[in-house]
Design a protein that fits this description.
Length: 96
């Protein structure tokens, strides 16, 4: 934004139009991400936030490639698609 300003007045106008808080700044950034990519972008940001070290590009790609499933959806899937005799094992393994 500031890099495109040609004179003092443009710089002042750009500075005066900045969001008042970081929360508003981050909200603007997140809402500028196309809606169809927003969920993956948020998942990637969460992954990066909680990473113990800087991540590689490959790790970041893996982080958004994994489809997270809510526990209730996983239980429904197990109940419908896993043979009854294996359901207890599947629940214990998937929820651990």
């Amino acid at each position: 934004m500031l890099g495109r300003c040609l004179d003092y007045d443009e710089v002042q106008h750009a500075l005066n139009s900045l969001p008042p808080t970081l929360d508003v700044t981050y909200s603007r950034i997140l809402y500028s991400i196309p809606e169809q990519r927003r969920e993956k972008a948020i998942r990637l940001l969460q992954f990066l936030t909680y990473s113990e070290r800087p991540s590689t590009i490959e790790e970041a790609v893996d982080a958004i490639a994994v489809r997270l499933v809510r526990e209730v959806d996983l239980m429904r899937y197990i109940n419908c698609h896993v043979p009854r005799k294996s359901q207890a094992f599947a629940r214990a393994w998937c929820l651990s």
